[in-house]
Amino acid sequence: MTNTSRYVALGDSFTEGVGDWDPESPNGVRGWADRVAEQLVLADPSWEYANLAIRGKKMRQILDEQIDAALALEPTLVTVYAGANDILRPRIDIDLLMSRYDDGIARLRASGADVVLFTGFDASGSAVFGRTRGRTAVYNEWVREIADRRGATIVDYWRLREFQDWGYWDVDRMHMSAAGHTLMAVRVLEAMKASHRIGLPELEARPALRRAEQLRADAQWAREYLSPWVGRRLRGVSSGDDLQPKYPVPGHPLRASVTA
């Protein structure tokens, strides 16, 4: 066993960092997990970080492709959020899905790693994704039960009501913005009871749109983001099919702006 503390992040676009666009980062995104890792390193330089998350991955893919890879890295800490892409599918056996999730979390905990889990977001404010609210509520109860049974820490995304502000979301209305990822990093570190130097982001005021303006904005969003998203699912392809993990090899990348 290594004496190095090691944080390994698992999951899909949420953990990869989609929405927090950054051309200097691998895959063009930064994200809350990178920000959490930076704070861990600032507090203790012995920390290393790997991020195996890839956008578009469903639960089974995350369990099959990322759990063993994470265990091979001998993690001290693992964060994992999986299942959001399954919930959005037309059909889902959520009990079977979450039973497999429980098995995966059990394996991570058996390694001695601390594990942080997430409930799903309350999408009641979305006319499209709000339809999955009931599924997400069932998913969340499973996550809470798994966290209790396995001794995992939980970040209760559903109850983080500040994320109901659209200022924390990217223009695609599906992923958090840079401000959202920054806020999530703060909430994760708080759940872990870890120190940090992240300031809460200030949101720009957004002018209220008239009904005609809102309809035009919704139509443009549907053309540019919703239709391509639906099309990929109908074709059985993912935006992450040609991507590799951002940080498959543990290290401690720190930005100059963080260390300054």
Automatic annotation (TrEMBL):
Enumerate the PANTHER family for this protein: GDSL-LIKE LIPASE/ACYLHYDROLASE, PUTATIVE (AFU_ORTHOLOGUE AFUA_2G00820)-RELATED, GDSL-LIKE LIPASE_ACYLHYDROLASE, PUTATIVE (AFU_ORTHOLOGUE AFUA_2G00820)-RELATED
Taken from the record, one Pfam family name reads Lipase_GDSL_2
**Classification via InterPro entries:** GDSL_Rv0518-like, SGNH_hydro, SGNH_hydro_sf
Q: SGNH hydrolase-type esterase domain: from which residue to which, for each copy?
A: 9-182
Where in the sequence is the signal peptide annotated? none
Keywords of the record, alphabetical order, are: Hydrolase
For the keyword RNA-binding, the answer is no
Q: What is this protein called?
A: SGNH/GDSL hydrolase family protein
- CDD domains registered for this protein in UniProt: SGNH_hydrolase_like_1
**Where is the stretch described as Disordered?**
241-260
GO MF terms listed in the record are: hydrolase activity
